[in-house]
Amino acid sequence: MSRPQVAAARPSTRTALPACLDSGRLPAHVAVIMDGNGRWANQRGLPRVMGHRQGVEALKRTLRLCSDWGIGTLTAYAFSTENWSRPGEEVSFLMTLFEQVLARELEALQQEQVRIRFLGDLSALPDGLQALIAEATKRSAANSGIHFNVCTNYGSRSELVHATRALARRVHAGELDPEAIDENLLAAELHTSGEVDPDLLIRTSGEHRLSNFLLWQLAYAEIHVTDVLWPDFDAEALTLALQDFQGRQRRFGGVEAGE
Ligand code: IPE
Ligand code: IPE
Ligand code: MG
């Protein structure tokens, strides 16, 4: 007699939070500038695009860890408005890669209850990618797990210009009093609307700059720069970033009691 077919279940192995981290003081929102893919490939004598391929593995690893460790939101910088200036072959490789990975991972994201969104000017992306993004966003909108934001054709200055235009249109239409514009109204027009601001920004590959990433939202984020190249980013590197975060004294412009 043949054995009943059991649907292949996902391995339910969750990675436990390392003992050196305090589960009560984790960042609610981690943002990451995934940098160093090209250098990772160069160091191995490989074409740059192989670094991007490995970078996808690092992103999957990081998403899984953040989800397992109870971090509410992960926002990753995948492609900037300035990255169009790269050689055409690299840009088209990246667009194809995004499409392939998204198609391949859609089911797993659903099973893990990930709510995925893509932040940026999506209208400039290839049609096939736009369609997949729309499907993934819709299918996962009601998921109860980690919020996963992928910044694709994202530029913070462009985002702020769009937000300003949206508010100006409402003023022009007589719906909004300019004096009523405050930080909350502006934040509500950004791609990140509905998310808390990132508490921690991680940038890999040792560069100390923001590269047009979340300029508004990162106002009070703690910044952790690591020399690790993105494709090598792993549990140890994430643990170090979180330890660094937990060692910081966040003041938000005030003073500590007793100072
Ligand atoms: C980050 O790695 C990935 C993207 C910007 C798409 P890079 O491609 O910038 O890698 P480096 O900085 O050249 O090493
Ligand atoms: C920032 O990395 C953009 C992404 C990670 C997608 P870049 O490699 O494009 O940034 P710069 O050019 O070093 O500032
Ligand atoms: Mg780079």
Note down, in words, how this protein is organized.
- The chain has 7 helices and 6 strands.
- It is of the alpha/beta class.
- The protein has a domain at 27-155 and 197-246: Decaprenyl diphosphate synthase-like (Undecaprenyl pyrophosphate synthetase).
- A 6-stranded parallel β-sheet has the order 3-4-2-1-5-6, sandwiched between helices.
- The chain is globular.
- One 3-methylbut-3-enyl trihydrogen diphosphate (IPE) binds at residues 33-35, 77-80, 83, 207, 209, 211.
- One 3-methylbut-3-enyl trihydrogen diphosphate binds next to strand 2.
Give the C-alpha Rg.
20 Å
Structural class: alpha/beta
Looking at CATH, the homologous superfamily of the domain at 27-155 and 197-246 is Decaprenyl diphosphate synthase-like
- Determine the fraction of residues in helical runs and give it as a percent range: 25-40%
CATH topology of the domain at 27-155 and 197-246: Undecaprenyl pyrophosphate synthetase
Q: SSE string, helix = H, strand = E?
A: EHHEHEHEHHEEH
Low-confidence segments:
1-9
Strand content: 5-15%
